[in-house]
UniProtKB/TrEMBL annotation:
This is Molybdenum cofactor biosynthesis protein A. Gene3D superfamilies: Aldolase class I (3.20.20.70). The keyword Iron-sulfur applies. Residues 1-10 have a biased composition (Polar residues). One of its GO terms (molecular function) is iron-sulfur cluster binding. Residues 1-23, 426-457 are annotated as: Disordered. Keywords: Iron, Iron-sulfur, Metal-binding, S-adenosyl-L-methionine. Residues 440-451 have a biased composition (Basic residues). PANTHER family: PQQA PEPTIDE CYCLASE (PTHR11228:SF7), RADICAL SAM DOMAIN PROTEIN (PTHR11228). The keyword Iron applies.
Length: 457
């Protein structure tokens, strides 16, 4: 069956649906269950999930040494738009409007730009945020201009030495690439994020890289992701030198200031560490330095929240909180003003910007911790509904062959990653069928064969 461009009215969500009243309750329960719902916790209190990945292709134009994809990834077909629309509808039914949807892969820019435009429009229509997660190679200015016009909110560039880009021998040399990518986004109204995998090959350069990020007022969000033994990448276990503490300290050296990673929490502390700074002209000041004040503000905001379904209108909550707690609002305002004034000479050299710094600690595929999986804030959309990214990474092949159901005007159709188009029945082939590997998917075949040989020996 040939796939045609779907509209939401012709596509119904498959998988689990949210049936409760407060969409934050499941995450809050998970965090409470493992003692992580303290005074600084924002997840489950202000939002039902941090983000959901929508994998629009398993293909990639790089082959990172710490890639989380499966060896069989390059043997698969891209999901038709109707499947992706159905997964978007499922994300929306679970988490409601406001959730950040990461258009990811593989590298999503290998899809036709028209497909990505359609997805951005649909995400905007559903009231969710879209983020393009890309290595940037194909994300030219013209490409990003089209997506911005279609409603793309954020672009996250992944650039680091695990990608083995030709001609670059260090993270410092890769700053040329990072600068060029920032230029591509100028004036498009996109929020710019950067992702870096922290591994044995760049831990010594982490402080210098953090300083580079601090000095880029265009960058709103900086994420450092610690090496994890999962997926097809050739590097495996994490070196002892890479711990949450060592990464936090190296980043603080780069920002030349303490970052107070223990003040506010985004999910489980073993998964995520979060800091927030104001920057200007090559200086940074942490805005989370006042722990008691921050936690009082979190509590007051929580009391001021009147949403019943987990979709918080932040501005509305802040206004209501300020009306109910004028003294606390004044204290918070003065604290922010002090942070800005502490930027000192930096104020003369550049604009004041806020930047978030995030350290993400994915788990190894064979060492998943139940409490972290149960309180995960980073989900992937699968055929059976959202799933923790760590769990998904550990079971990728199983999810690639799970059939997606798409309900259209002429009844249900089915798809899995082993077939190019929707089928009439759910009995789809799986990826181990040798007849399913045309030449263009030879790369995946060879990888899978190599992996099988390794597993046998
Ligand atoms: S993806 Fe893994 S490391 Fe990240 S929040 Fe979820 S369980 Fe934690």
């Amino acid at each position: 069956m040939k796939d045609t461009a779907p509209t939401l009215s012709s596509v119904k969500p498959a998988g689990r649906k949210f049936t409760g009243t407060d969409r934050r309750a499941p995450l809050r329960g998970g965090l409470q269950g493992c003692g992580e719902y303290g005074a600084g916790q924002t997840a489950g209190r202000f939002y039902p999930i941090a983000c959901v990945a929508l994998e629009v292709t398993q293909r990639c134009n790089l082959d990172c040494t710490l890639c989380y994809l499966s060896d069989r990834a390059e043997m698969t077909y891209d999901p038709p738009l109707s499947v992706l629309f159905a997964r978007l509808a499922t994300i929306h039914s679970h988490y409601g409007p406001g959730v950040s949807v990461q258009l990811t892969g593989g590298d999503p820019t290998l899809r036709k730009v028209e497909d990505l435009e359609a997805l951005c429009r649909e995400i905007r229509r559903l009231g969710m945020r879209s983020c393009l997660m890309t290595n940037g190679i194909r994300a030219s200015r013209a490409f990003l201009t089209r997506l911005a016009a279609a409603g793309l909110d954020d672009v996250a560039f992944h650039v680091d030495m695990t990608q083995e880009r030709k001609g670059f021998n260090s993270e410092t040399e890769l700053n040329v690439v990072r600068r060029a990518y920032i230029r591509h986004t100028r004036g498009l109204g996109l929020r710019v994020l950067f992702n870096t995998t922290v591994f044995g090959g760049n831990i010594a350069e982490l402080s210098a890289l953090a300083r580079f990020m601090r000095d880029r007022p265009e960058v709103a969000f900086v994420s450092f992701q610690m090496q994890a033994d999962t997926g097809r990448g050739v590097l495996r276990g994490r070196p002892d030198a890479i711990t949450q503490d060592s990464v936090m300290r190296a980043v603080e050296v780069g920002y030349e200031t303490p970052l107070h990673f223990d003040t506010a929490a985004v999910g489980h502390a073993k998964c995520n560490r979060y800091a927030s700074v104001v920057t200007a002209g090559g200086r940074a000041v942490s805005v989370l330095s006042a722990k008691r004040l921050t936690q009082k503000v979190i509590a007051a905001l929580s009391r001021a929240d009147q949403s019943t379904d987990g979709h918080i209108d932040t501005r509305d909550s802040v206004r209501r909180m300020a009306r109910r707690n004028p003294f606390l609002a004044l204290q918070a305002g003065l604290h922010l003003l002090k942070c800005v004034l502490r930027l000192g000479r930096g104020l003369l050299r550049g604009p004041v910007r806020r930047q978030s710094v995030f350290i993400h600690n994915f788990m190894a595929a064979d060492a998943l911790e139940d409490d972290r999986c149960a309180s995960c804030v980073f989900m992937v959309a699968t055929a059976n509904g959202p799933l923790s990214m760590c769990v998904h990474n550990a079971q990728r092949d199983m999810h690639l062959v799970a059939p997606d159901r798409v309900d259209g005007p002429s009844g249900p159709s089915w798809w899995n990653a082993a077939v190019p188009h929707l089928s009439a029945g759910p009995d789809l082939p799986d990826l181990s069928d040798p007849g399913l590997a045309p030449l263009k998917r030879l790369k995946g075949q060879m990888r899978a064969t190599r992996r099988n040989q390794k597993d046998v020996s």
